[in-house]
């Protein structure tokens, strides 16, 4: 999916919402837990109920891998079920030496039909390039994450810059604003103005709104650019909005609230 | 597997060799490529031919994920086939926010029966802790990697220390010498003496010997401690020693050479 196609979706739906399918078999409603294809069935109902109000789905690979083969199968079915209009992100946080990263790129861009994958920067350029070589796909590099552990390394200073700033500056040169995005946590609102200065044209994938407590209003104000430039992800606050039989309806209501708020900022 | 059990294997076999099963369907011998279970069949023959001379196998998850469901199934069969005496490493380079890392730990320590997993440090302590909470398993954190990209961030200085040094010092406090190892690339021999000073009691997983060109002699001299403290991984130089029907025999010969050399250093 090109940037133009993505932003057309955003402006036609007045939404820059991404829904995170962190589907945990122990957290889905009881009436679905004994379903022979529980994870996919849950995802299918969530997608049907929310697709009109969001532009992207993010599959958190960990939750599928935890179930082994059955989980990998549910991931495959889910990515194939997501409408072609929606931007499909593998939240996989991969990254390894070049010949290995090339295999991960194959796994998520060819074997599975994702539009984008999240990757970790620690191992440097040759660990990221194999993803960027798929120029019709998107590589989403960890910049400044939403978790407490961001302070351990990402927010450590080297000279007068944080490690995450070095990562943004260095990695900007590896790809373009048409195939490289950054993960910036919504809980890091104080840094957003600075981050936008460092990377004025890149899209950000912003997790941390919802359960983690980031402010949609604040990050939208600080990070939005002419063609939007942000995808805000909500996972648990949407998919576990209810643990009863009404889970999909409740998810839809929450998603509509996000979409309405987003329409004000766009 | 405890440290004592691992080191008993090392001293009884006089080997600290780990074999990397980076099994690529396009690189295995032609006569196996049409086998209905080609990846597992290749791995099975490699394991049978090499198990007496090594103490560990490392499965590079990327190569299995690239094949989708079939690949995940081959990984499952392979890890179950590796003898219980051998230390089973998932080379997965995972790491995410806490509730997600907990799912990765479940995937590789419970659903699959690995003894260890490699993880990436960028996101900090809460991204690593869920792995370390499995106290009967091992977490192997990226320290200084073998690839060229190590210079981009790992070898960048913050004050008077490199990022990788900060990672080693900080992360040492998260686990113990009984459940935490570090990945240190063999191509970084200049740094090994310093690394051993920083982390005197930890085991290292050392890739980069073989195709990547690191010296077994040099890293053994600089990093070995009383109970060995290093696992040296070789992947491509072993498993692709021949691309004919004699691939397993040739792999066995190469592995015996490594074991003989290792017996001199132990």
Automatic annotation (TrEMBL), chains A, B:
Keywords recorded for this protein, A-Z: Decarboxylase, Lyase, Pyrimidine biosynthesis
Coiled coil, from the record: none
Boundaries of every Orotidine 5'-phosphate decarboxylase domain copy: 16-251
GO biological process entries: 'de novo' pyrimidine nucleobase biosynthetic process; pyrimidine ribonucleotide biosynthetic process
InterPro entries, A to Z: Aldolase_TIM (IPR013785), OMPdecase_type-2 (IPR011995), OMPdeCOase_dom (IPR001754), RibuloseP-bd_barrel (IPR011060)
Keyword Glycosyltransferase: no
Reactions catalysed: orotidine 5'-phosphate + H(+) = UMP + CO2
Sample GO molecular function, one term: orotidine-5'-phosphate decarboxylase activity
Database matches in Pfam families: OMPdecase
EC number: 4.1.1.23
Pathway(s) of this molecule: Pyrimidine metabolism; UMP biosynthesis via de novo pathway; UMP from orotate: step 2/2
SMART domains recorded: OMPdecase (SM00934)
Highest taxon above the source species: Bacteria
Similarity field: Belongs to the OMP decarboxylase family. Type 2 subfamily.
NCBIfam families on file: pyrF_sub2
Protein name: Orotidine-5'-phosphate decarboxylase
Organism, scientific name: Paraflavisolibacter caeni
Gene: pyrF
